[in-house]
UniProtKB/TrEMBL annotation:
Name by which UniProt lists this protein: AraC family transcriptional regulator
Molecular function via GO: DNA-binding transcription factor activity; sequence-specific DNA binding
Keywords: DNA-binding, Transcription, Transcription regulation
Domain called HTH araC/xylS-type: residue spans: 188-285
Keyword Plastid: no
Superkingdom to which the source organism belongs: Bacteria
Species whose genome carries this gene: Pradoshia eiseniae
SUPFAM superfamilies: Homeodomain-like (SSF46689), Regulatory protein AraC (SSF51215)
Length: 289
C-alpha cells in the first residue's frame, strides 16, 4: 500500500507498537525540520532527488540506498519538490529486536557500527540488494494481508532484513562509503567528540581548541552543518543519554552526573522542557507501559 501526500506522523514520530512500516510516495514542498526519534529507523530510498542530512553529513541518495538511523541521531531530508519522493520507512523499538540477540549475534550492531564509523548509508552489492528487495516485497504484501500469523511473519522479515544489513556493514570489502557524502572534517570531529564525552567538558572554548578554530567560527559552522546550535545539540544528546541511563535503572542523581549536567535542578528543568514531564514522572510512566 502506498500512502500519498503525507508524513507518517509529526516531526519526531510516536511509536506505540514494536514496529511500523510505511511505503510513501509524495511531493514535499515544505522544508522538513531537523529531528530525532526515540526509536531506530531504516529508510530505503526508491525514487526522487534527495540529500539526507545525518549528524552533520550530507548523503546524496541513489535508488535503493539504505539509511540506518539510531534513536537520538539528528537528521532531516533535503527534498527536490519538483520530483516524486518515494521511500520505505521502518520504525522499530530496539528493545524488541534485542530480545532476539544471541551471544555471537548482536542484531543492533549495524546501528552501533554506523554511529562509530560516522556513516549511516549502505549501498548494497547486487546479491545483497536482490535479497533485500525480496524481503521488502514480502513485507509490503503482508501489510495488506489479514492472513494467519501476519504479525509473526512481519517480525521474522524485519529480523531477516536487519541480519542482511549487519552482514553488509560488517563486510570489510564493502565499497568506498565516502562516495556521494559531503561533510566538514572539523564538524565531524566535534560531533564524534561530543557523543563520546557527554559527561565531560563540552564548553565552546574547549571544543574550539580541539579543532583550532575560534569560538565564533566553530559555532557558525556547527549550526550550518547540523541545524542546531552547539548548546542545543549538547543538551539534546545529554538528555537522550540520560533517558538511556534511566532505562538501565540508574538513580536519578547518578544519571544527572553521568549525563554531564552540572546540577540536579538544571537537569530536571532541561528534561521537563524537552519531554514535558519530570524525570521522576517519566520513570513512573515507563513502569506502567
Amino acid at each position: 500500500m502506498i500512502e500519498y501526500g503525507q508524513w507518517p506522523l509529526e516531526k519526531r514520530g510516536i511509536l506505540n507498537e514494536d514496529f511500523r512500516v510505511f511505503h510513501l510516495k509524495d511531493r514535499i514542498t515544505k522544508d522538513v525540520d531537523y529531528h530525532y526519534h526515540d526509536f531506530h529507523k531504516i529508510i530505503i530510498f526508491l525514487k526522487g532527488n534527495v540529500t539526507y542530512m545525518i549528524e552533520g553529513k550530507a548523503y546524496k541518495l541513489r535508488p535503493w540506498d539504505t539509511l540506518i538511523i539510531s534513536q537520538s541521531q539528528i537528521h532531516k531530508p533535503i527534498i527536490d519538490p519538483s520530483e516524486d519522493y518515494e521511500r520505505i520507512i521502518i520504525w522499530f523499538n530496539p528493545e524488541m529486536i534485542a530480545e532476539h540477540n544471541r551471544e555471537d549475534a548482536n542484531l543492533l550492531e549495524c546501528f552501533e557500527v554506523a554511529m562509530n564509523r560516522d556513516n549511516n548509508r549502505l549501498r548494497l552489492f547486487e546479491e545483497q540488494l536482490r535479497k533485500v528487495k525480496r524481503i521488502v516485497n514480502d513485507f509490503l504484501e503482508e501489510e495488506d494481508s489479514p492472513a494467519f500469523g501476519n504479525d509473526i511473519l512481519k517480525r521474522t522479515l524485519l529480523i531477516q532484513l536487519i541480519i542482511l544489513l549487519n552482514r553488509s556493514i560488517l563486510d570489510i570489502n564493502r565499497r568506498n562509503p565516502s562516495i556521494d557524502v559531503q561533510f566538514d572534517q572539523n564538524i565531524n570531529e566535534i560531533v564524534t567528540y561530543i557523543n563520546q564525552h557527554l559527561d565531560g567538558d563540552l564548553s565552546v572554548g574547549h571544543l574550539a581548541s580541539l579543532v583550532f578554530l575560534s569560538k565564533y567560527h566553530l559555532m557558525r559552522k556547527f549550526k550550518a552543518y547540523t541545524g542546531y546550535t552547539l548548546h542545543q545539540y549538547i543538551v539534546q544528546k545529554r538528555l537522550m543519554y540520560a533517558k538511556a541511563l534511566m532505562a538501565e535503572g540508574l538513580r536519578l542523581t547518578d544519571v544527572c552526573q553521568s549525563a554531564g549536567f552540572n546540577d540536579y535542578s538544571g537537569f530536571v528543568r532541561a528534561f521537563k522542557k524537552e519531554f514535558g514531564i519530570s524525570p521522576r514522572e517519566y520513570l513512573k510512566v515507563k513502569k506502567t507501559v
